Amino acid sequence: MELAFAVVIGALTASGVYLMLRARTFPVVLGLTMLSYGVNLFLFSSGRLVTGGQPIIGSAETYSDPLPQALVLTAIVIGFAMTAFVVVLSLRSLADNDNDDHVNGRVPEQDRIPQEQEGANT
Amino acid sequence: MSLPLVVLLPFLGALAAPLFAQGGRTAIAVISCVPAIIGLAALYPHWAVLADGGIVQHTTEWLPALGLSLSFRLDGLSLLFTLLILIIGLLIILYARYYLKPHENVGKFYALLLCFKGSMLGIVLSSNLLLMVIFWELTSLTSFLLISFWTHKKDARRGARMSLAITGGGGLALLAGILLIGNIVGSYELEDVLAAGDLIKNHSMYPVALTLVLLGAFTKSAQFPFHFWLPHAMQAPTPVSAYLHSATMVKAGIFLMARLYPALAGTEQWFYMVSFTGMATLLIGAYVAMFKHDLKGLLAHSTVSHLGLITLLFGMGTQLAAVAAVFHVINHAIFKASLFMAAGIIDHETGTRDMRRINGLWRYMPHTATLAMVAASSMAGVPLLNGFLSKEMFFAEALELNLPGLWAYLPPLVATLAGIFAVAYSARFIHDVFFNGRPVNLPIFPPHEPPRYMKIPVEILVFACLMVGMFPAFSVGPLLYAAASATLGGDVPEYHLTVIHGFNLPLLMSFVAFFGGLLMYTQRQRFFDFHARFKEIDEKAVFEAIVSRISDTAHTVTAYIENGSLQRYAMLLIVSVIAVSVLPLWDLGIAIGSNGLSPVDWPTLIGIAILVVASLGTAAMHRDRFFALVLLSVVGLLVALGFARFSAPDLAMTQLSVEVVTIVLLMLALYYMPSWTPIETPKGRRIRDILIAGAAGIGMTLITLAMLTQPFTSISEFFLENSKPGGGGTNVVNVILVDFRGFDTLGEITVLGIAALGIYAMLRNVDLPPPPGDGQGHAWTRDAYPMMLQQIARPMLPLALMISAYIFLRGHNMPGGGFIAGLITAVALILQYIASGMSWTQGRISIRYHNVIGLGLLFALIAGAGSFAFGYPFLTSTFDYVYWPVVGKFEVASALVFDLGVYLTVIGATLLALTSVGRLSPHSAINSTNYKEGS
């Protein structure tokens, strides 16, 4: 079980990092969201994987660790706030940079290709 | 208590003085005198103790953990410097009253001068070395501001910058040295450090500590090769030059050497470093002084030379030499301050400081001329004046120095040579300025005597020159004895303060210096011709070149690292995180821990497989943005299932509702963006990123695996035990959120609110027309809002609100609570926007979501502050049971109010964010209610 769980976190991290390194804003936002899933699961798992031990007093024999759960709960909500902020930032950047959604604000010289210029004109 | 007061008063005076600037120069000068007068009065009662070599100590704890305390110490040495600072400071205040012009910013001048005075007093009175370093840096800063007082002058600004760079840099070295010493001794208190001299000197770090401390002292006291800042600091107003650059600040380095003399001196390293630096400074300063045409330039280089002399005396390491050094500190301060003031008067009355133009002033200002000539003679070392006495002691010590072989001749030779130079430049000061023909082309002509009171400070100092010169034992004997005994740490050698010691070798050296100097002055044209053959090095140009080269290098490095590409920063950031964490993790031995692996069941494995495929698929297919978003939502939903699977119902519910809101938001945003991501040009970059991502992923897998299989202990036992009896709830996660760690949650909902307001602010007045189609040649479908969705969504709202109320109320005991209930309400409301459009919904729900956020935070704060009313700390919760009809026994906790705050903030923040994005383009299909009719 632990190995499978670890692979999940690894896959989320790898996809998240790859997307974060992309040149357009939207994939970067997806990457950040993905990475925050990975981090949340990682933090959560620091209380170890417990089956049927929900931390509701009186509902189980042994309880899972409630502290990482409380931390992750707020992390999920804050993570949403961050995603929302970043995606709006990218919208604002789109509006300010003539509908160019490159993370640098505009496509760097060396990365310009003919099709892109066409695409930007439409 | 009087010691901290003496240091504090000038700072208070600095605050008060500018208030009197309106009252004119006299009023502000009178006010500025008050701190020094009170200070002198406060110190007077201590004299009896100090004369016998006693110490007055005052200590107040400040930061004991750092070894930093507000401790002050008054002994003979600090008394000597305190008197110099206070008394010469008073004379400077009087002098500056007449020196400054009425239109100048006198308030600023006196405030800075008093700040400087306080900092300087802090240095000499601190008993804690760290405290001393603080004041040391303060003098660097205030002197920077004083040198650049005439901010409109480019040279003044440059000179100030140079002095700050040199003395401030030296201050950093000093700090490092003091930290080392404190580390060796185990205390920063002067008492302990002075007593631990042998410990310090035998320590392996002694050479490093010594070098660093001396760097601080040498830069401050303008020793070679750092001497060049002092002549350039002469751009300051003359009262500043007289005060800072002759009597006080440049003596701070000397003071430091005297103060730490018992702790650091007496070793070979000390001897060679200090005495040779002093010797070089003595000679170079005196030599250059002869060739300066600027009156203040001559005095500045002469000051450099005299500071070198004092340093050399300390470097010799004998007790008598230390006495001579302390004596020369007094004498130099007296005659040099008066000379600077005289130079200022001449500048004031003639409009220039160029000695080639100022000639024959004797016939215009005989009074000033007499004073200046006496002081200059003292500088030259003419008998019956104070400069002679300490110079004589210096010659005697130079002869006593036992260097091997021919080296033994070096110190007396250097001393005599420097003496000759000193006589020559003093003779030039006297003859060139007051005689030597008639003035040439003066800006102010004819010059006349300055105002009466401007001469008084000079008169007092010249009188002191004569008194010390003729009756040394009577005038300075006790003070010198007290200072010398404090410097040497108790035992003072036998010395005699008499005017003439008889005919001996030192006297012969004085004769040689005197007549040699006069001869040199008469033959000065030859020396000028000789000197002119060498290309003069402009230290300022060299310094500026070095500074600009450093700054150019910094710019190059910055431009290389910070090239404006966010993509590159992200890459560098992630690569550094990986690089930094590899080694420590390697050392930890990342492997499967002792708990081993637990068996896996099929349903979980299938879920995990889908999750992994979906997440890797999102990355692989990210160019088709809509598809990638759908895959991302699959990942999010499976994460929610994962939380449910591993005993975290609260997390599962939160993740589920957040997931819905996130995907709706991203979908909305995608509407305004291109639907496709173009291929990135360099293929190498994609391969590189795959490798980086792979490394990060594998690393996280290994770390997680190692962590999950390690045995562990948790602090959560406390929460599990106290949740019900202490917090009144059985849902431990919720009790942690609203009770145990309520303050954290308060912070988090505040962040949430700020993020939403930020989103609102970012999108205000932004018009972003959505693209006409999906980028693949298809236009958007122009359907109206789907009727099925509308019909289902409307009755859903009350149902969803009821469920969220239920989830909210039960949250303390069962999975649920403010966060989850808030998200459910938000989702239900968002559904109305999706189904019926912006305008329709807003026409019916006329709530301003800003207010909801504010109300939520207010509830949370009231719930927290409510406990103050009962005398408990912030956010202490209480609970009780009430019996409701139908419901029965129901528990009411004060934390419920807090949770209500959470609930409202979550709703407000979520909806404010979403509606801000939805409102972006007012004419788009999303919010057009009239669209149906329009089509």
TrEMBL record, chain A:
Keyword field: Cell membrane, Membrane, Transmembrane, Transmembrane helix
Cellular localization per UniProt: Cell membrane
Main location class: membrane
Basic and acidic residues composition-biased segments: 100-115
Residues that span the membrane, as ranges: 26-50, 70-91
Annotated spans, Disordered: 96-122
PANTHER family associated with the record: ANTIPORTER SUBUNIT MNHC2-RELATED
Membrane topology of this protein: Multi-pass membrane protein
Similarity field: Belongs to the CPA3 antiporters (TC 2.A.63) subunit C family.
Gene Ontology cellular-component terms listed: plasma membrane
Protein name: Multisubunit Na+/H+ antiporter, MnhC subunit
Signal peptide annotation: none
UniProtKB/TrEMBL annotation, chain B:
Domain MrpA C-terminal/MbhE: 685-765
Spans through the membrane: 26-44, 77-100, 120-150, 162-185, 205-230, 242-264, 270-291, 298-316, 322-346, 367-386, 406-425, 460-483, 503-521, 569-590, 602-619, 626-646, 652-670, 690-709, 745-763, 792-809, 815-840, 852-872, 892-914
Chief location of this protein within or outside the cell: membrane
Organism: Marinobacter algicola DG893
GO cellular component: plasma membrane
GO biological process, any: monoatomic ion transport
Protein name in UniProt: Multisubunit Na+/H+ antiporter
Record-annotated Na+/H+ antiporter MnhB subunit-related protein domain positions: 788-911
Positions of the NADH-Ubiquinone oxidoreductase (complex I) chain 5 N-terminal domain: 66-110
Subcellular location: Cell membrane; Membrane
Keywords from the named record: Antiport, Cell membrane, Ion transport, Membrane, Transmembrane, Transmembrane helix, Transport
Keyword Transmembrane helix applies: yes
